[in-house]
């Protein structure tokens, strides 16, 4: 059994001491960690753990006094340090994640660090926050001022000033309100800018007479532009659809347009079979597959390749005329039976 004990020592489970009273060995055996115990059991499957320790104890103390070896557990301390490092690493990862989310809400990195540090104390000074967060003296007051302006902390003036965090729900609610206010201000500025620039654009004569074409890429962008044309129509909108995905996306816009403009729709036979014709007011049956939207004979979008997500938008009068005639031609667009 002494050999077994020495094998345990070799794998780092126990540390050897050259001398010591018998009680130390007994105490060492008792305080061997649970992880060590599991390793002992796997090394000695024929002996339950308790009997292994008992046998080792008896074997050691049956030897002559001068040849005894005293042992104590060594795995517990290193394991504990490793666990502490793991916990510290996890906590750091959580902090970085929270700081990143604060930054998405418009908070600076230093302000986010300062607020997190404040949460762990009822109140503190700027000096403590510098030591706790590593934020330099020259920047800590900017961070605290930012938190104060955003309504996330309370400042108690004195020598030095004392800073207290608000409850996270209250602090973040204040932050949300400020974000909404900022967004409203930016939206108002954008609207004002558009109003200021519109006369400059509209004052240029002959702009509509120039036949221009724009390439639109991406199905989302194509759908958005088509919806814009349909909803902006004042008199008439003509729509050809051969793709089911496109019909599903535009159906609601077409139904809304029918309430105030003349909406002409043509879809393929396959699409007619999958829908209730009454929903869209008896659309025509499209013979040749195509995807086109024409709004008030002012603008046209045609999908050159739905699979490749490419479309062309143009104000070319000739192309719009040909397309509307295509809708009226019974050989191209039949009345749905």
Notes on the protein architecture:
By secondary structure, this protein is an alpha+beta fold. The chain has three domains: 2-73, no CATH class; 91-169, Orthogonal Bundle (Arc Repressor Mutant, subunit A); 212-335, Endonuclease, Chain A (2-Layer Sandwich). It is 54% helix and 17% strand. It contains 13 helices and twelve strands. The strands form three sheets. It has an eight-stranded mixed sheet, with helices on both faces. A two-stranded antiparallel sheet has the order 1-2. Helix 5 packs across helix 6 (109-119), helix 6 packs across helix 8 (137-149) and helix 10 runs parallel beside helix 11. The protein is elongated and about 85 Å long. 22% of the residues are buried. Residues 4-35 and 68-75 have low confidence and may be disordered.
Keywords:
alpha+beta; 337 residues; 54% helix; 3 domains; Endonuclease, Chain A; single chain; Arc Repressor Mutant, subunit A; elongated; 12 strands
In short:
The protein has helices at 2-10, 22-30, 34-43, 49-61, 75-104, 109-119, 126-133, 137-149, 168-202, 219-232, 244-257, 269-273, 317-328, and strands spanning 14-17, 70-73, 153-156, 162-165, 213-217, 236-241, 262-268, 284-286, 292-295, 299-305, 310-314, 333-335. The chain is α+β, with helices and mostly antiparallel strands and 337 residues long. The protein folds into three domains: 2-73, no CATH class; 91-169, Orthogonal Bundle (Arc Repressor Mutant, subunit A); 212-335, Endonuclease Chain A (Endonuclease, Chain A, 2-Layer Sandwich), CATH 3.30.870.10.
């Amino acid at each position: 059994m002494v050999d077994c004990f020495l094998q345990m020592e070799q794998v780092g489970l126990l540390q050897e001491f050259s001398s010591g009273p018998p009680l130390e060995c007994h105490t060492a055996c008792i305080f061997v960690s649970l992880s060590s115990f599991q390793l002992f059991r796997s090394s000695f499957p024929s002996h339950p753990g308790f009997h292994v320790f008992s046998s080792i104890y008896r074997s050691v103390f049956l030897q002559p006094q001068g040849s005894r070896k005293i042992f104590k557990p060594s795995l517990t301390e290193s394991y504990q340090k490793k666990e502490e490092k793991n916990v510290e690493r996890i906590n750091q990862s959580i902090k970085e994640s929270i700081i990143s989310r604060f930054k998405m809400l418009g908070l600076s990195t230093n302000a986010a660090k300062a607020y997190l540090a404040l949460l762990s104390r009822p109140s503190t000074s700027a000096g403590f926050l510098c030591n706790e967060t590593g934020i330099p003296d020259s920047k800590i007051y900017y961070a605290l001022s930012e938190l104060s302006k955003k309504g996330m902390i309370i400042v108690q003036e004195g020598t030095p000033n004392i800073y207290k965090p608000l409850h996270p729900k209250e602090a973040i609610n204040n932050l949300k309100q400020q974000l909404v206010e900022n967004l409203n201000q930016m939206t108002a500025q954008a609207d004002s800018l558009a109003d200021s620039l519109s006369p400059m654009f509209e004052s240029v004569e002959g702009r509509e007479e120039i036949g221009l074409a724009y390439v639109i890429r991406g199905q989302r962008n194509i759908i958005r532009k088509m919806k814009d044309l349909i909803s902006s129509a004042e008199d008439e909108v003509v729509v050809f659809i051969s793709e089911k995905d496109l019909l599903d996306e535009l159906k609601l816009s077409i139904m809304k347009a029918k309430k105030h403009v003349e909406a002409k729709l043509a879809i393929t036979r396959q699409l007619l079979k999958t829908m209730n014709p009454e929903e869209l007011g008896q659309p025509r049956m499209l013979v040749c597959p195509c995807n086109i939207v024409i709004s008030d004979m002012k603008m046209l979008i045609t999908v050159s390749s739905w699979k490749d997500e490419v479309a062309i938008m143009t104000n070319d009068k000739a192309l719009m005329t040909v397309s509307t005639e295509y809708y009226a031609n019974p050989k191209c667009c039949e009345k749905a039976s």
